Amino acid sequence: MRIGILTSGGDCPGINAAIRGVCKTAINHYGMETIGIHSGFLGLLTKEVTPITEGDLTGLLNLGGTILGTSREKPFKKTGIMDDCNKPELILNNAREIGLDCVVCIGGNGTMKTAARLHEMGLNTVAIPKTIDNDVYGTDFSFGFDTAVNIATDAIDRLHSTASAHKRVMVIEVMGHKAGWIALYSGMAAGGDVILLPEIPYDIHRIGDTILARLKKGKTYSIVVVAEGIKTDGRKRAAEFIAQEIEYETGIETRETVLGYIQRGGAPTSYDRNLSTRMGSHACELIANGQYGRMVSLQGDIIGSAPLEQVAGKLKLVTEHHDLVVQGRRMGVCFG
Ligand code: F6P
Predict the structure, then answer these.
(1) Mutation probe of ligand 1 site: the residue of 131, 175, 263 with most atoms within 8 A of C-beta
(2) pLDDT at 202
């Protein structure tokens, strides 16, 4: 068998470990041939492909980014690239010409949708969820998330001392798109006093009261963790908006930090390396069993899979019933 592999959407730590997991298992265990497709679905349009051999797989476990490159090309949408042709049809033809028996698509929510639709059209696809945002539906965790949470936790830890020295409120904005997973996990791990998630509406007066109540108790500084996707005035970034509002509400000097792309760069944690490895390897098992049109998933500690049509187009969001929210509230954390 000859399998293609592509990485699509925003990069995240662990992608290269997943490529290694797929290719090592495919080559060593199943005797499959592996072909790297460059720049996501764009490479299937332009036929930019190269064989991946065992020698190419050295040094990938801890390497950030993706050796295959990525793009946000969505072949079912007009993206300005090759819009004059029927892109899905072209992809099917190209995959046939290259002789691909299956395409492994490593990506986030957009990739799941594309992989599902290409599968419906007759292309054998298997998908692996990757995103620091952890918002892919149908899997407890996606790789990249643990690393991003660790990076954000370290950053928030560091803000405590400077906040304390200056008796300030520190607002830190973390990524997550429409989901608050990174804010919730890093905020709780680093002792955030206020944690704002897109999923839970906030009241700025309540946030101000929380910070002033802390001051009354002798807590001279506060840490506020905000997800980038929270509601703002629509003009300012989440951190800037919330910092200004807090300063206005409390009169306490407030500073903001936007963590940005640091969260998705560099080496994956050992947890993410192992998750990527397991998911990559499992993708080969699905292919060997002819189980196409599925996304590899993690349920508890079990690696399994779910039909792409059941996960595509859905978002996994934080709910107010999540244990970290429930326990956090009991401990006095303000979620807005
Ligand atoms: O990788 C996910 C993510 O980091 C989101 O949290 C963020 O909104 C988005 O990607 C931004 O990425 P880009 O600028 O590459 O589109």
Answers:
(1) 175
(2) 98
- Alpha-carbon separation of residue 217 from 23, 221, 333 (angstroms): 57, 11, 15
Going by C-beta distance under 8 Å and a sequence separation of 6 or more, which residues neighbour residue 234? none
| CB atoms near residue 55 (< 10 Å) | 6
Q: What is the pLDDT of residue 80?
A: 86
Q: What is d(CA 287, CA 34) in angstroms, rounded to the nearest whole number?
A: 12
Q: 38 near 26, Cβ under 8 Å? A: no
Burial class of residue 282 in the structure, from the number of CB atoms within 10 Å of its CB (0-12 exposed, 13-18 middle, 19+ buried) = buried
- Per-residue pLDDT tens over the stretch 144-189: 999 999 999 999 999 999 999 999 999 999 999 999 999 999 999 9
Torsion of CA 224, 225, 231, 232, to 10 degrees: 60
List the residue whose alpha carbon is closest to atom 15 of ligand 1: 10
